[in-house]
Amino acid sequence: MSQLDFQLDQVLRTAIKHSASDVHLRVGKPPTLRVNGDFMELKTVTLTDELMVKAMRQISPDTAQIDVADKEKYGADFAIAVDGVRFRVSLFREQGGLGLVLRRLPSKILTPEQVGFPRRVLDLARRPRGLFLVTGPTGSGKTTSQASVVDYLLREAGGVHIITIEEPTEYRFAHRPGSIITQREVPTNVPSFKEGLRQALRQDPDVIVVGEMRDLETTRTAISAAETGHVVFGTLHTVSAAKTIDRLVEQFPGEERSQVRSQVSTSLLGVLCQQLLPRADGNGMVAAFEFMECTPAIGNLIRTEKTEQIESVIKTSGKSLGMQLLDDHLVELARSGVIDHDKALERANNPDKMRTLIRSTGG
């Protein structure tokens, strides 16, 4: 492939063929795929500034494109489709010029059973009100888990109006008999998450899905909505239930935190933390989960600033409700041979303790 005939859609078709999760484009490197967690460089051209601009123009809507002379615009997020396969696109400036990362989205919305999260998550999603947080690092499958719950509610709950606010819209849902789905994209349909959430409260929602709780006012409005008769799903980039609570509260000024802890202790439904790891047999990826339901005991720990004790409660008394720690699930996956022990240790919240657990159980 020469510089003259470089076409990004050809690269994306190669990514689809190899079941790549991501495509990276950077000046000075060939197009690079992430396949089962590892990078694979394509034997095509080394990307130049000119080719990166060409790639941007091939796929970006006019409103998303970055003019090299415009120093005020730093990036854009949007979604595209190639041969029926959708990709979430992150376009950005970097030291070497423009950069592009395209994440492949599943062609089908996975069922809860296929995703593998605890069944109790669905019970909590059908409550009449409350806040449910799905957390994990970038690329851990948070949106996939949320989409699975949304599709389940549309199919099974009946009489629900679900509003999603995302940047960009990643999954397309269909209305179901007796249910309505409204999907709004930032900034195409609404200027911000904050404004989308504010407007949603006037649109007769039962469930609101906020793609990212990235600022104080969005978080404040989400908590208020959860207290006043709506189920709100939101995401944070945290790796454990206890750290999720701390991160949520720490967004607020010091003088407000006591009140916020009290609000969260009564409005929180649960927290699902997840990590995505390559399978040991090289056949795709598997998710590991930490799940916490906000029981009265855990609510009391949140209210009294004792979140460091949440891990102990999950481990000792949460199993009857399907609660589990991430590290325990990683141990289970490693013991059964689904993932490599080294990968489990890399993702563990407490690798030293996990190493002992694996050895004590014959891993």
Description:
- With 363 residues, the protein is α/β, with parallel strands linked by helices.
- The chain has two domains: 8-104, 2-Layer Sandwich (Beta-Lactamase), CATH 3.30.450; 112-324, Rossmann fold, CATH 3.40.50.300.
- It contains 14 helices and 13 strands.
- It has helices spanning 8-17, 49-59, 112-115, 120-125, 142-156, 193-200, 216-227, 241-250, 257-267, 296-303, 310-317, 326-335, 341-347, 351-360, and strands at 22-26, 32-35, 38-41, 75-82, 85-94, 97-104, 130-135, 161-166, 180-185, 207-210, 231-236, 268-278, 285-293.
- The chain is globular.
- The relative contact order is 0.10.
Task: Supply the key terms.
Rossmann fold, 7-stranded mixed sheet, 6-stranded antiparallel sheet, Beta-Lactamase, alpha/beta, globular, 36% helix, 2 domains, 13 strands, 363 residues
Short description:
The protein has 363 residues and is of the alpha/beta class. The protein contains 14 helices and 13 strands.
Low-pLDDT segments: none
User: Kindly, what is the distance between the CA atoms of the first and last residues, rounded to a whole number of angstroms?
Assistant: 47 Å
**SSE string, helices as H and strands as E:** HEEEHEEEHHEHEEHEHEHHEEHHHHH
Strand order of the largest sheet: 9-8-10-11-7-12-13
- Class from helix and strand fractions: alpha/beta
Averaged pLDDT, please? 91
How helical, in percent, are the residues?
A: 25-40%
- What is the tally of helical segments? 14
Computed over alpha carbons, the radius of gyration is 21 Å
Secondary structure tally: strands: 13
Oligomer kind: single chain
